Amino acid sequence: MKKFAIILGGCGRMDGSEIHESVLTLLAVQQAGANYQCFSLNQAQAQVVNHLDNQPSRQETRNMLVESARIARGDVQPLENLDVNDFAGLIIPGGNGIAANLFTLAQDGAEFHVNQLVSQAAQNFTKAQKPVGFICIAPVMIPAIYDFPVNMTIGSDEGTAALVTNRGAIHHSSTVNEICIDEKYKIVSTAAYMLASNILDAYSGINKLVHKVVELA
């Protein structure tokens, strides 16, 4: 059975990985006849947000690995343990929180950088000719990870599309139920909650992305 690595960045759309996107990814992997192992950074989140009122908590700190264990039902490993040889591919769900935790779009805007462990993991899979899937805001990382142009999508937001294009990516506008496939590098992306208005919308693209990643593996 093929096994896929999933990188999470906490638990909750505002300060970690988007829970719907993460769980739907895990579901789709098993529906595609494969299995998964979750990984996360053993580091503090950039911030903690009250998801009831979307207000940051100034007094509270949370650890990404500990919070990701909520989604993974405890079965999550530190990202430094990820060995590309053990997996058929890699998938990174989105969420506003990962744009602060896994890369620094929230803090640095267009000058963002990607966490070194996250970037190295994606590079290692691509060098091994294994597929990598990026969901929602996660595809924004692509031009900061790879030093070659990659066909990708973040949906249809013009500002974000311009940002990734300026960083060297080849952006393709898409609808919520579409995916973008860079066949040469086996890199797949979909918009999910960049466009989705409900969980069914989000699943339409995530399911296609996961099945394509499994197929490419």
Can you tell me about this structure?
This protein has 217 residues and is an alpha/beta fold. It has helices at residues 19-31, 64-71, 98-101, 105-108, 116-127, 142-145, 158-166, 199-216; strands at 3-8, 35-40, 48-50, 55-57, 76-78, 89-92, 132-135, 151-152, 170-171, 179-182, 187-190. The protein has a seven-stranded mixed β-sheet with strand order 5-2-1-6-7-11-10, with helices on both faces. A hairpin with a 4-residue loop joins strand 3 and strand 4 (55-57). Helix 1 crosses helix 8. It is globular, with a radius of gyration of 15 Å. The relative contact order is 0.18. The mean pLDDT is 97.
Question: Short summary of the structure?
Answer:
The chain has 217 residues and is α/β, with parallel strands linked by helices. It has eight helices and eleven strands.
